[in-house]
Give the backbone structure.
Amino acid sequence: MKTQIKISIYSIIATIMLSYGLTSCSKTDDTLTGTGSISVEFDNQANGSTLVLGDNYTNEKGEVMKFSMFNYFVSNFSLVKADGTIFTLPKDSCYFLIKESGGANTEVVMNNIPAGDYTELRFIVGVDSAKSTAPISERMNNLDPAGNAAGMYWMWNSGYIFVKAEGTSPQAPLDTATNSNKFRYHIGLFGGYSSPTINNIKTIQLKSTDVATVRTTIKPNFHVTVDIMEMFKTPNTISVAANPTVMVTPFSANVANNYADMFKLHHVHN
């Protein structure tokens, strides 16, 4: 009799524990259903401090640079979980043009992301070849050359300018058209359409020690710093005296290889 009672008690305990376990799993699974949003904050800097248009900065060559413009395209975003699972956002919802206007950091928001715990943010600097060559009707909003993207598209070359930085420097030669010592870096080229060209599209992968917790009620923020002086630093030290204007020349690849290092993940905030 005592043995039967013991067995019955053990059976009851086992049933309770199993029930609790199933309930716990169910609660965990419930939090990972549905979709949420993320925001990515682009914090433009120069030599580690907030970029201020019109202020003087010194590059690796010791040249003084004063920026009047800093614009760039970021697109093709994806998120990676710790197990390597990748969620790629729909292309038409993740083309953004970041323009430094001397104000607050630019923040972009992406929606309909599956709930989950993400440890890496990926995107490209530039506009991919498929979208660059798509009919104009498929290139609206941030990609509209006559609208938001005015000045960021070469009409004569049928392509977007991925990164555009302009300003003045005492070391740059005199520009007679503007009567100023001006520098211009207009970097584009996606690899060519009818004939091959340089491909200056750069893929950025930002891994985090913090987990971005996407839930229906939690919207993580990725704080990304973008240091413009990296364009002139590594792996190629670039002089505004020697190369004051860089556009669709082979030298543009040197600038593009440099700006791939501009983007750093500062922190993730849930």
